[in-house]
Amino acid sequence: MARRYDSRTTIFSPEGRLYQIEYAREAISHAGTVLGILAKDGVVLAAEKKVTGKLLDLSSAKEGGYGGSGEKIFLLNSNVIAGVAGITADANSLVNYARTAAQRHLFSYNEDIPVEQLAQRLCDLKQGYTQYGGLRPFGVSLLYAGYDVHYNFQLYHSDPSGNYSGWKATCIGANNGTAQSLLKQEYKDDITVEEAIGLAVRVMGKTMDSTTLGSEKLEFAVLTLDKTTKQPHAKIYKPAEIDALLSKHGLAKKEEDAEMRAV
Amino acid sequence: MECQVALTGKGYVLVAADTVAARSIVKMKHDEDKIKVLGSHLLMSYSGEPGDTVQFAEYIERNLRLHQIRYLQPLRPSPAAAWIRRQLADSLRSRSPYSVNLLVGGYDIATSEPHLYWVDYLGTLAHVPYAAQGYGSYFVLSLLDRYHNPEATLEEGIETLKRCIAEMEKRLIVGLGKFKVKIVDKDGAREIEL
Amino acid sequence: MQINGGSVIAMVGKNCVAIASDLRLGNQALTVATNFEKVFPVTDRIYLGMAGLATDVLTLRERFRFRVNMYTIKEEREIEPETFAHLVSSTLYERRFGPYFIEPIIAGITSPAKGSKPFIAGADLIGCLNFAKDFVVVGTASDELFGIAEGLWEPDLEPEDLFETISQTFLNAVDRDAFSGWGAIVHIITPEKVITRKLQARMD
Q1: CATH class of C7-199
Q2: With pLDDT > 90 as the criterion, what percentage of chain A qualifies?
Q3: This prediction's pTM
Q4: Would you give the DSSP letter of residue A41?
Q5: Which residue of C has its CA nearest to A60?
Q6: CB contact under 8 A, A99 and C70
Q7: Strand pairing partners for A225?
Q8: What is the CATH number of the domain that holds B30?
Q9: Across the interface, do C69 and A103 touch by the CB < 8 Å criterion?
């Protein structure tokens, strides 16, 4: 029965469902986990990388750039970073759209785009792809971590249907149920960025398949306010910084692992 | 002969504009309101080509209202002024440019600061402590150089504004009659009597 | 070009460059604002100064910010001064037959990968670039600036000496021009840092 209503474009099934959107959501639930935690003095994003391997050229992530491998966490504007889960090719196109939208806002209004407005812009685009003929929806969910003067630090989630919502802590991608219940247990309303970083690392450690964490499987970013300028400052961690963070929280690879890899 | 004056003080902006609608040498109207309230904490006075002025002011007013309905919060003074400037700058290089000069005054609730912007028909934007448009500016700006105080209370600010209006009444060859005065502070934008 | 007034100058020193503008915004002979800066940071190491019609100064500053931000975020590196100069040139030439009424000046230091060399350039209103080795001037006081800079500038000035040279050149030039002045702002750009100073000037 379903095949009659989902093979071509997004049209309602007799039960009132849009199968293409449900399939897009399914694609996301297999993607690398991304979690976000809103603290009182910042926002934290952590993501699990799926594309790994010894032969992958990661030289561009080590020095220069904004940090990150360009797979999961992106800088959208000076006040917004995003973590993506789903089809990476779709995500790249959305990231480019978001960056242009943010710059267009800066051009017209001479201020950084408010975070919710940017999320709304992307959702308008995503919603359009669930309605117009001949197109498939974006197979991407995003977490937006941002700052603006209206609501200070914020965390939003948007899905392929074009819905978005604000969160104190949330998770998308594989094992998001486990992560969310962990976050629900451990989240406190007055959590600081430092505590949120620790919580993010611990939850990632429990949800990821591999027993040991390392920079080749993790991306990490924090948005805080610069102490002197009071402007938002996005920091996407470089591989070495992620390893340092993991060892600080006692989750890094054991020494013998490293020796074994060397052999 | 149209004149507008505006000045900032401690936590407020005062905007004053004449109320004459003139065609050639004839005063057609004595109670024209040339200051639009663009939002809860935003004011804009306008002068220039008759026809253009009201058309442009209403265009700005309705678009800022639409923005507030869409995004649930009004634009703050600085982005509002930047957007208004862009409309004039784009208009300047269009087939039929608006010739409208503005003073935009607002109170930023997020930072608790008053802001005043001088904008001309070319799309020039200046963030200033006090400003004037029209022939009156030649008398009034030097007065404000002498008497303006950014820390002045509302009473002192009104006193300075009265001086400015009196000077225009005295030195301009045509009297402009009554001035309409509006204020914007933390409590919002409203009209006041001098 | 004389509606709003204003002047900008840039000079090369030893491993450093300096760029300065006045602060006046006028409406013909009437001074409207005395806080109107005409020099803007493009990156941490590049500054862009524009003299001419103020509305176009603001519009172009916003256009260049848009283009440079998109360049930076996509390339994941900062733009080189010379690349930026060509961006300025092509943006202006795009309006060859209905130009922006400004003349730009670019001052910066190249990236460490390119040797951290000083770079300055000027252009006319349709984007004809002038890669000068000593100094470039634009604005209503450009004639005065040319004359004084010709006399005061010398090669290989250290940052502090370059600051003194550009400040004296600029202040004395704008004092002879009714459309420029009312204070000035100077940026000294070195490979390590940028020093920004406001200058006291004649307020008349």
Answers
A1: alpha beta
A2: 67
A3: 0.94
A4: T
A5: C76
A6: yes
A7: A232
A8: 3.60.20.10
A9: yes
